[in-house]
Amino acid sequence: MIAAGFAALLSHWRYRPLQLAILICGLALATGLWTGVQAINSEARSSYSRAASVLGQDTLQQLQSESGGPIAAERFVALRRAGWLVSPVVEGTLRLGRTRVRVMGIDVFTLPRGAAPLGLSGGGDVAGFVAVDGLILVHPETAAALGDSGLNLRTSLQVAPGTLMADIPTAWSLLKRHDFDYMLLAPDQPAGLAPLSEIAPDLRRVQPDPQGDIARLTDSFHLNLTAFGFLSFAVGLFIVHATIGLAFEQRRAVIRTLRALGMPNRAIVQLLLAETVLLALIAGLLGVVLGYGIAAMLLPDVAATLAGLYGASVPGSLTLRPDWILTGLAIAFAGAFLAVGQGLWRIARLPLLAPAQPRAWAMASRRNVGWTALSGAVLLLAALVLAWFGRGLASGFLTLGALLLGAGLLLPGFLTLVLGLGARTSRSAMAEWVWADMRQQVPGLSLALIALMIALAANVGVSTMVASFRYTFTGWLDQRLASELYVSAGDEAEAEALRAFLAERADAVLPIRTIEIEIGGTPVFLYGIADHATYRDHWPLLESTGDVWDRVAAGNGALINEQLFRRGGFRLGNRVRIAPDWTEEVVGIYSDYGNPTGQMIVNHDRFMDYFPDVPKLRHAVRVPPEDADMLADALVREFGLSPGNILNQADLKRFSLRVFDRTFVVTGALNTLTLGIATFAILANLLTLSSMRLMQLAPVWAVGTTRARLAQLELLRTLGLAVLTWLLALPVGLLLAWVLLAVVNVEAFGWRLPMHLFPVDWFRLLVLAVLAAGIAAAIPAWRLARAQPANFLKVFVHER
Amino acid sequence: MNAKLLALPLVLLTYGALAQGFAGLGTDAEGFSVPEAGRELSFPRDHGPHPDFRIEWWYLTANLKGENGADYGLQWTLFRSALRPEAGEGWSASQTWMAHAAVTTDNSHFSTERFARGGIGQAGVRAEPFSAWIDDWRMTSRAAPGEDPLAALEVFARGPDFTYDIALTASGPLVLHGENGFSVKSASGQASHYYSQPFYSVRGTIDLPTGRLQVSGQAWLDREWSSQPLDPDQTGWDWLSLHFDDGAKLMGFRLRSRSAEAFTSATWIGPNGKTTSYGDGALKMTPGRLQKVAGREVPVEWRLQLAEHDLDITVEAINPNSWMHTLVPYWEGPVTAQGSRNGRGYLEMTGYE
Prior knowledge:
Chain A is of the alpha+beta class and 800 residues long. Helices cover 63% and strands 13% of the residues of chain A. In chain A, the strands form three sheets. In chain A, strands 11, 12, 13, 14, 15, 16, 17, 18, 19 and 20 form a ten-stranded mixed β-sheet that branches. The longest helix of chain A is centred in the middle third of the chain and has 52 residues, at 429-480. Chain A is elongated, with a radius of gyration of 33 Å. Chain B is mainly beta. In chain B, strands 1, 2, 3, 4, 5, 6, 7, 8, 9, 10, 11, 12 and 13 form a 13-stranded antiparallel β-sheet that branches. The chains are: A alpha+beta (800), B mainly beta (353).
C-alpha cells in the first residue's frame, strides 16, 4: 500500500518532466549561488587567518619605535640582556622581476614558541634556514610566480602568498638594510624586569590584532557577498515554492483517491516528506557542484578585488572544503522544506473530498491576498523602524531584507488593486474579460512575480548605488589626486638627491610623510603635509571650520577622514590624542573613498617634530600637466629612478577606477544571475499554469475568439504584469539604494555617499523585464496558438 | 660527564638541526677539530670557548638547603654549538647558544630555556675576565686577580616562575677527568675534553612563587667540549655527580647501547682534589625503582658499586618528577646517596623514550 501510494504520488513527475526539471533546477540554482558565495568567503577567510597568525601577530604584542623609524639591531640585544624576551622582525617589499613580494626577516632563536612558523619547529631545516644565503620560505604560488629567481627558495604552505620568509641576515641582504621594524614580545615575561618605559622609553607597545587587519577590513565585503548569495537563494526559493505548490495542487485528485482508498493522511504526508528529502538531496548535490563552478569562475575577480582594495592576498584557486559542501546540502534541505511546508500544511488540513479544481485554489488564494498584503505592510514598517533605530551592518542588511520581502508581499495586492481599477475603464465585454482574467492569474503567478520584483528592485538598488558611488568617486579622484606626479625614493640619500633634482624643474615638491598610530585601539595612518595651494584648492572636505587650512598650516589643527569621523565618533572641535603628549583639534573632515582605515592629516613640521625618524621618501610633485610625462622620463633617464617609483596622476586614476570597477564585477554577476532566476521562475509558473488555463480560455474560444488572438492576449497580459511589477520595483529599488548608501556603506566602509539617479538605467531594466517576461510567456502562448481545437472541446466534455 | 655530550646532538636533532650539521654525528667531525689524548689543558684559556669544536658546555648543578631545612636543587647550563667550522661574523656567525635553568624542590620542578645566535653579543663566553651569559642569565667570575677565574663565581638566571642569584666559592682545585682531561666515551674511541670544579660552596637566594628564601650548600661545575661524541649505537646516558659527607666526590656515567653492554666511566675525587679515573666496567650502575614521568618510565633509584673504594650505595631522587620540559626533554634533579657512604648530588638521565 505504502509503496503503491509512493509510486502513485511520484508518477505525477513522470507526466510532468518539465515541472520536475524546473523544481530541481530552481533548488539547485538557489543552492548553487549560496554555496558559491560561501566557497569564495571561506577560501578568502582561511587565507586571512593564515596571514593573521603569521609570527603570532594575532596573539603577540609588538614593540615599535615611538618615532616611527626603524629600530637599531643593538637595541634587540640590549633588551635581551636586560631580560626582556623579545624577537626582532624586519619587513620590507622587494621587486623581483615583475613580481612584488613582502620580505619578512625573523630570528628563529628567539621567536616565541607560539609564533614558530612554517614547519621549522617540526624537524624543518633550521640549519639551512640560518645558513649563509639561507633558505627562503615561500608559498608555492609565489615560488611559481618568481620562477627562476636565483634565490634559495623552499616552498611552505604556511607562508602567506606573496611573502618571503627568511633569517634576519638573509632578509637584510635582500632588503639592503641592517635594522628592524619591530620586535615581538613573548607572552610570558619573567617577573622582576626593569620596566620598558625606563630602559626603552622610545619604544611603544602595540597590542596584538586577534582578527588581523585584513579580516576586519574585508568583513564588510564578505557580508555584501553573503547578502547577495542569500538574495539569490531567496529568489530561487520562490521558484521552488511556486513549483512545489502547483505540484501539490495538481496532485489533489491523486491524494483524494489515495485517501478514499484508505491511506491515512499521516502516511501521505510522510510520503510527501520522503519525496522532498529525495528531491532536496538530488538538487543539493547538483547545487554544490554548480556552486563550485560559480566560485571557481568568480574567485579570480574576487581575489583581484581584495588585492586591489585591501591588499589582501587570496589565492586564485579554490580548495574543496567540507564545511561549505555540508552547508550547501543543509541549505538545500532547509529551502526544500521551507517551500514544501505550506503545501503540506494545506494537504494535512484538506477536507477529505475537497474538489480538485484549480479555480478553488485560486479562490482560496485570493482570500490570502489580503493577509499577504498585511504582512507585507508590517514588514515595510519593520524596515522603517530598523532603518531609523538600527545600529550596525547586520541591522542594515535586515532593513534590506524586510524592505524587499515586504514589498514583495505587497505585490499581489498591488496588482489586484491596479487590475481592479483597470477593469473599471473597460468599455467592451472582451476588455472586461481580459482585465478579469489577469486578476484571476495573479495568485498563480504571484510568487514568480514577487521573485521578478525582488530581482528588479535589487537591480535598481545596486546599480543606483554602484553608479552613484562611481560618479562620486570619479569626482573625488580629481580632487584628491591633484598633483601631477607621485615619486618615491628608495632611501634617504636618493630622496635628498631627488628633491634637489626636482627643485629646479617642478613648480612644487610636496613631502608626504606617514606613520601608523593607534587611536582608540584601532590603527590610523597619520600624514604630515606641507601647506600648499594644492591642498587648499582641491582637498575634498566634507565639513570644516572656516580657517581650516590656516589652522593646519599653523600646526594647531588636524584633518580626519570620514571613516575616522564616523567610527571614532569625532566631531569638529574635538581633540584627538595623537601621541602621549600631543593632542590636536579636529578642524576638518574629508572624504576618503576606497580606503578601509582611519586617516589623519597634520602639519608636516609638527609631524616631523614628533616622528623625526620617519623615512622622508615620498613626494607629490606639481608641474604643468603637459610637462608631467617629460619630467617622469627625465627622472628615469637622467636621475636613474626606477619607473616603478613614479606614478603619474592619469595612471593612478585609471588604476583606481579599474580597481573600483572590478570590485563590482562580482556584484554585477550575482545581480544578473538573480534576474535570470526570476525569469526562469516566471517561465516555470506560466508553463504549469498554461494547462490549467485551458478551462478558462475554452469558453472565450467557443464564443468566437481565434486561438491566435487568445495567444496574443496571453502574451500581452504577461507583459502587462511585468510592467506593473517593474513599476512597483522602481521605488522599492530606489529605497534599497538609499539603504545601501546611507546605512550599509556607512557601516561597512565608513563613508556616506550622495545618491544620484540614473533614469536611463531604469528603462533599460524595463526593457529587460519585458524581454524576460516575453521570453517566459512566448512558449505557453505559442503552444496556445497551436493547440488543437479538440483540446478546447474536451474542456466542455469533462465539465463537472 | 660523557652524559652531556649527548645533550646537544639530541637538542639539535629535535631543534631542527641546528640539526643538519649533525646528521653524520658520531662518525665524522666534518672539518671540526677532534679531541686528542695528550693535549694539555691550560687555564684560564680553556675556560673560554673552543669554536673549532662542534659542541661545548658550562654546566653547573647545586645541592642546597633552605633556611627552613628543606632540600633544593639548582641547574644552570650554557651549551655552545657550531653550525659550520667557518667562523662567520655578526648575525651570520656560525655559533649558536642554548641554555637551561631549573630549580627543584621536594615537590616542584621549575625549568626553562633560552636560545641565541652567536656573533651579536646576546650570548657568549669570555675566558678572561671569565663570563658566560645568555640574555640576562650570567655566570661571572669574581675571583681575585691571580686566582683561577672559576674559583669564585656569581650565577644568575630567571624563568617565568623562578629567579635565583647565588655566589660560589671553590675550596679545591680543578679536576681533570679521564687521562688528563681526555675522557673516552665509547669502546670505539669517541672522546671529549672534560674537566670540573666540584668544590664549590654556595650562598644565595631563590625566588619561587611561594616567596624568597636564603639557601646554602654545594655546587659542581662541568666543562666539556668535543666534535664527534657519539657512537651511533648509543641510545642515552645516566650521569651522576656526588658529594659525600666525608669530603670525597664521585663522577660516574653509564652510556646505554642498543647492541652491547652499557659503557661506564668514573672519577673518584679525594677531599684534597686527588683524582683516580676508572674505565669501562669498574663502576656498576644498576637501575632500581621506575617512576612514570612525562609519559615514560625513568629509574629514579640506582644502586652504585665501585669495588676499589668499597662503595655500595643507593641513590634516590629527591623529587622523582624532575623533568626538564625543554625543547629537548630529559630528567635532571638532585639526589641523596645512602649506604657505605652518605651524601648528596645530581643525576641526569636522557634518552628514555
